[in-house]
Automatic annotation (TrEMBL):
One BP term from GO: recognition of pollen
Gene3D superfamilies, A to Z: Bulb-type lectin domain
Record-annotated Bulb-type lectin domain positions: 26-146
Stated name of the protein: Uncharacterized protein
Position of the signal peptide: none
Stored SMART domains: B_lectin, PAN_AP
InterPro entries: Bulb-type_lectin_dom, Bulb-type_lectin_dom_sf, Pan_app, S_locus_glycoprot_dom, SLSG/EP1
Key words of the record: Disulfide bond, Glycoprotein, Membrane, Signal, Transmembrane, Transmembrane helix
Length: 401
């Protein structure tokens, strides 16, 4: 079985200085309202936005959700299997609580599935990124008649569930896009399976490409342990359902898991300050790809980034040793990505197996092997010798930022 690595990507916060779409003031859509192409709904806390978009170079239109401060990052799509071919799409909610997406000729492109009928339905975009339908006639506002979290696309949010219903109902899992221009379901899926002990797996069709290792009561055993994790994994058995979810430790930090079209699972976290430059090298003439290659060929390199963010990014900044003073940070109208290396791995074999230049490796966690153990042992010895010489107290790097 071929093992694909699990990639974790820490992204600095992107704040867009302009918003081209007109935003409806409310975060709800009632049965007497409609949302047309060019309009958006914005969640109450201004975190998420719902509207129409075209992916990549495609001219097709899709109804999706994205971070309001990162409009190019689409997180969920309603009509990923059937696009609107013009810019005349309209979203409406019926009197019984069903969402309908219409094309310009009033053909139904997509509709939600209701478990029950609502007397006074309202659609809401929550600050979790979840679109829900609630019945205002009920006293409890958290009883959802329908929610988008039940229909994952390529991205997993905090609170979104992966389900293995043990043959009693349809499973819930994440599916990659077909390509950067086509969000319809691709070849890869990220799901939970249970053969004695539950584990998370990445599948390419029916072929298992990667597995985390079984649940040990606290976490999935094959996942890395962070000294300051951004979220807490949760596993529940509910009747005939096996449910995997995770909760964030802080609602202030945006974090997500995305399965890209090459089958790589990436973790994105927005809003971090770059590490201190106590042990670093700057080369202003190198590109980001050259910087990546240089870092991966140096076992002491722990992270790299563009030195400058202007003009799409230029120069190379590499860190060595502990990443000091990396903190949550909100940047205004700037974007800078830092790529944190967790371990050495088989970069070239992964590139050859996928045969695509789009599989940009951000941070690498390879399968446990003899080479990895030797590498970790080597790094541990070097750090101990360095600290002994300096007489400094021990410090454990925080890879969660």
């Amino acid at each position: 079985m071929e093992c694909l690595p699990l990639f974790i990507f820490f992204s600095a916060l992107i704040v867009s200085s302009t918003f081209l779409n007109f935003s409806i003031a409310a975060y709800t859509l009632a049965s007497n309202q409609s949302l047309t192409d060019g309009q958006t709904l914005v969640s109450l806390g201004q975190k998420f936005e719902l509207g129409f978009f075209s992916p990549g170079s495609s001219k097709n239109r899709y109804l999706g959700i994205w971070y309001r401060t990162i409009p190019d990052t689409v997180l969920w799509i309603a009509n990923r299997n059937e696009p609107v071919v013009d810019s005349q799409g309209t979203l409406r909610i019926s009197s019984n609580g069903t969402l309908f997406l219409f094309s310009g000729n009033q053909s139904i492109i997509w509709s939600s599935k209701l478990s029950e009928v609502a007397a006074h339905p309202v659609a809401q975009l929550l600050d979790t990124g979840n679109v829900v339908i609630v019945d205002q006639a009920r006293t409890s506002s958290d009883q959802y008649i329908w929610q988008s979290f039940d229909y994952p696309c390529d991205t997993r949010f905090p609170g979104m569930r992966l389900e293995d219903n043990l043959g009693t109902a349809a499973d819930r899992y994440v599916t990659s896009w077909k390509s950067a221009d086509d969000p319809s379901p691709g070849d890869f899926s990220y799901r939970i399976e249970n053969h004695g002990l539950p584990q998370l797996v990445i599948m390419m069709g029916s072929v298992k490409k990667h597995r985390t290792g079984p649940w040990n009561g606290v976490r999935f055993s094959g996942l890395p342990v962070f000294t300051n994790p951004a979220f807490k994994p949760i596993l529940n058995f509910d009747g005939n359902q096996l449910i995997s979810t995770y909760d964030p430790y802080s609602d202030a930090v945006m974090s997500r898991l995305t399965l890209n079209e090459s089958g790589l699972l990436q973790r994105f976290r927005a809003g971090v300050k770059l590490p201190d430059l106590l042990e670093s090298i700057v080369n202003t003439s190198m590109s980001l790809n050259e910087c990546q290659t240089e870092c991966l060929t140096n076992c002491s390199c722990t992270a790299y980034a563009n030195a400058y963010i202007t003009g799409g990014g230029s120069g190379c900044l590499m860190w060595f040793g502990d990443l000091i003073d990396t903190r949550e940070y909100i940047a205004e109208n700037t974007e800078q990505d830092v790529y944190i290396r967790l371990s050495a791995s088989e970069l070239e074999s992964i590139r050859n197996s996928h045969k695509t230049d789009k599989a940009v490796v951000k941070i690498l966690i390879s399968a446990a092997s003899g080479m990895l153990l030797l590498g970790l042992l080597c790094g541990f010895i070097i750090v101990r010798i360095r600290r002994k010489r300096r007489g400094e107290h021990g410090y454990s790097p925080d890879f969660s930022h």
